[in-house]
Structure formats: C-alpha cells, structure tokens
Amino acid sequence: MRKIAVIGTGYVGLVSGAGLSDFGNEVICADINEKKIELLKQGEIPIFEPGLKELVDRNVTAGRLSFTRDIDRVIKDSEVIFLAVWTPMSENGEADLSAVKEVSKTIGKNLNGYKIICTKSTVPVGTGAMIREIIENHQNDHVEFDVVSNPEFLREGAAVRDFLWPDRVVIGTESQKAMNIMREIYRPLFINETPMILTDIPTAETIKYASNAFLAVKISYINEIANLCDEIGADVHIVAKAMGLDGRISPKFLHPGPGYGGSCFPKDTHALLHIGESAGIDLNVVNAAVKTNINQRHRVIQKITQLFDEKPKGKTVAILGLTFKPDTDDVRESPAIEIIQWLLKKGVSVQAYDPQGIDNMKEKFPEVSYMESTEDAVRGADLVVILTDWHEFRAMDIGRVSQLVNQKILLDTRNILNPVDLKRYNFRFDNVGRPNVK
Ligand code: UGA
After folding, report:
1. Is the shortest distance between the CB of 226 and ligand 1 below 6 Å?
2. Which atom of ligand 1 is nearest to the CA of 263?
C-alpha cells in the first residue's frame, strides 16, 4: 500500500483521505488552517457529514490516518499527493485556481523523488498541464513526477458511502507507471469490480464537469416542467415518476424544488460555460440550466408574494431548512440565502430552524431569529416555508403546527408534506408543480 498526502481538508479532502486510508493506504491529511488541523488531531470533525467521524476514528486508531500543518514535510514523505484544495468561483464565473497554483509551487520546491500529483478538486481542462509546468518551474533539481486527474463524485450528506462504494472511479493520466500506482491505491475497488474509467487527463477533467452540468440540467428541466404543471393543472410527481421508469431517463435527479445550490453545481456550471467560451463552443443547454435555476428562486419568491396577497411587509415567516440539501451543515449557494435576503428587504421578520445549518447561516444573517426546533420556528408565523427536505420536516406534525402558527399558510418548495394533512387542518398552501393537490 502507498504513502499518500492529501492537501486540503475540506469535505472532499477529508472524506477522500479517510476513504483512501480505509483502503489500506497510509494517509496524512494536511492543511494550512491551524484550527481545522487541531480539531482533527483531537478527534473532532470540522464538518457535519454522516459516517465521517466513524471512518476517521477507525483509521486513526489503526495508525493509517493522521493530520498535520507541515505541508513541506508531507510532500517529501509521500509517494502520491492528492490536491483537494478549494477552487471557488471567481468574479467572472471562472474557477479560481490560486490555491492549486500555490500548492503546486510548494510541491515543486519540495520534490525529492518520483511522485504522483493527483487532482481531486474540480479543475478546468488544462489544469493538469498547468500543474506540471508550475512544478517544473519551481524544481531545484530535475526529479521525475507524473500528474493524474482523479475527480471525485461525492455528494455531501452521502460522501462516505459515495467514496467507499462509488458508481465509478475515473483516473486520467498519460503515464503507465502512474496508472499502475493509482490502481494499487484503489485496489479494493478493483477487486469489487467497480467500473474504472482509465483515460487521459483532459478526458478525466471533462468527465467531472460534464457529469455535474448534466445533473444540473436534469434538475432545471424538471423544475421547468413543474412550473408548467403548476399552470396547466398536471402533477409533476406523476410526470417525473413515469419519465423515470424509462431506463434511458432514470428516476434520479428528477425532484423539483427551489433550484439547486451547494458548492458544486452553481460553480461548476459557470466554470463549464467559461471553458466552452474559451474553446469557442456554445454550451446552450448548460446556459439554459443556469438561467432556469436563477428563475426558480424567483418562482419561490413569487409564490410567497401570492400567498401574502402581495403584502409581505410586517409579517413573520418561519423558514424550515437553511442548508442547500439535507444531511449537511453547508449553506453555500443555498436557496435559503436568496429567499431570506428578499424577505428581510421586504420588512418581514424571519425565524428559522435547521437541524445543522444554523451556525453557518448566522454569519450571513445575524438579524434572523434562529430557533431550536420546528415548533419554535413556526410559533406565531404568518407563513411557513419549507426550503430543505430534511427527514424531520417530512415527519412534521401538521396538527401541532396548525395550533402554533398565527396564520395557516404554508409553502412546501420540496413537496414533502402530505397535502391531505394540510387540507384537513385548513391550511392555505402551495408547492411546486402539484396544482391538483392544493
Ligand atoms: C454534487 C454531485 O451530485 C456529486 O456527484 C459531485 O461530486 C459534487 O456535486 C461535487 O462536485 O463535489 P452535492 O452538491 O453534494 O453533489 O449535492 P447533490 O445531491 O447533487 O444536490 C445538489 C443540489 O441539487 C441540491 O441543492 C439539491 O437539493 C438539488 N437537487 C438534487 C434537486 O433540487 N433535485 C434533485 O432531484 C436532486
């Protein structure tokens, strides 16, 4: 088994590092963030990700996983260096590669023998070549190394499962030597017959963007169909179910809602549009998916306005769900951000509850009243808006909610509540694409 360094302990780096150590490799996760490394050394996990603590604990105890801030040292000590640093969206929508460039320089300066430099972060086509050039320019002595692209397909909230039991593993490199070492690192998955796509770097880099953008397109498509259903009296759930039964379509990612969020789809669709632009190729479908997603947030605002008969000022809204999806504490690009922003601008008081996302949202909106439970959030509310499909909201006691609210008005943007219950308790309500069940 191989000695591996993972640079960057965000959710991709941490899950990948822990997962690779679970495959039997010796892994050191490194980060410049002192606070994060200290927490990890004390056995605490800086993010909420189901199953991650158990995975980390198991491998730390087995002596295969450790944490450090000494990036120079881990580079020198490892055979394979995974880059899992962040690649946020820059102002013009392009991926910001400054962290990747910085780490590449450090790798160049510390290269003391043959190593593989492997990107896990989502990076535009051509980044592999850029990394090679930076390392070559910063090397003191000429040392052989290979660059590999090994994109991740982890979903927040299900990242541990996605790493240990992936649908596929993509490895891109032009070097047979590097490919052999990568196969060794992922040996348990080869034994399990997990599909492996062994290819070149530009193809591997493109696979990641093409996959994320396709899923974003699928969501925007079903959101548009839901909006159409709203107007023409069809039920989008039955439409999606019937569509999904066609094996060519598949039922996944056909769930309508307030539009996709998170640290990946919004950023990666914009980055792909940039890649297309640079290559002189129109990516019209991706462009439309991005526009539809922006529009979907406006649809939610429109629905809130209608439920308030155009007069939101002075009202109290209970927001249930702050994270961009359930089972995470991540609020990046969450629909809740735009909705809360709009409500506050309109003079609405917002009281919000989320099982994990409150701390992260507090930083953005200190003026919101954050509550400790659904009951506290809905108490005295003139409108309840569900924005995230947490299980605990699915199981909500509508009868109890009806006793606590000031007005029985509810917007379910995830279509998780049973309309029969809402009707029984005389709620005036709206959802996404189900006009017949209002
Ligand atoms: C996404 C991809 O699913 C992962 O494969 C990929 O590795 C990851 O991005 C990444 O690039 O790092 P993630 O952003 O964690 O994962 O979450 P998803 O489960 O894909 O959900 C993204 C957004 O789409 C959420 O806001 C979710 O609520 C929304 N969504 C998803 C829908 O509105 N409808 C659906 O049917 C599915």
Report:
1. no
2. 14
Region of 384 on the Ramachandran plot (φ > 0 left; ψ -120 to 50 alpha; else beta): beta
Is-contact 4 42, C-beta < 8 A? no
For 391, counting Cβ atoms within 10 Å of its Cβ (0-12 exposed, 13-18 middle, 19+ buried), the class is exposed
Work out the burial of residue 397: count CB atoms within 10 Å of its CB; fewer than 13 is exposed, 13-18 middle, 19 or more buried.
exposed
pLDDT score, position 314: 95
Residue 83 CA, ligand 1 centroid: distance in Å: 22
Q: How confident is the model at residue 438 (pLDDT cuts 50, 70, 90)?
A: low
β-bridge partners, 349: 316
Rounded to whole angstroms, the Cα distance separating 21 from 56 reads 9
pTM: 0.95
Tokens linked to 120: 């896990």
| Residue type (1 letter), 162 | D
Give the mean pLDDT of 234-263.
97
With beta carbons less than 8 A apart as the criterion, state whether 41 and 67 touch. Answer: yes
Query: pLDDT digits over 186-195, tens only?
Result: 999 988 889 9
Q: Is 29 a catalytic residue?
A: no
3-state secondary structure of 154: coil
Q: How confident is the model at residue 437 (pLDDT cuts 50, 70, 90)?
A: low
Query: For residue 208, which atom of ligand 1 is closest to its CA?
Result: 11
CA of 266 to the centre of ligand 1 (A): 10
In this predicted structure, what is the pLDDT of residue 435?
82
* Ligand 1 pocket: which of 215, 390, 391 to mutate (most atoms within 8 A of CB): 215
Q: N- to C-terminal Cα distance for the chain?
A: 58
Q: Which of 295, 353, 294 is nearest to 322 (CA)?
A: 353
Does residue 154 have its Cβ closer than 6 Å to ligand 1? Answer: yes
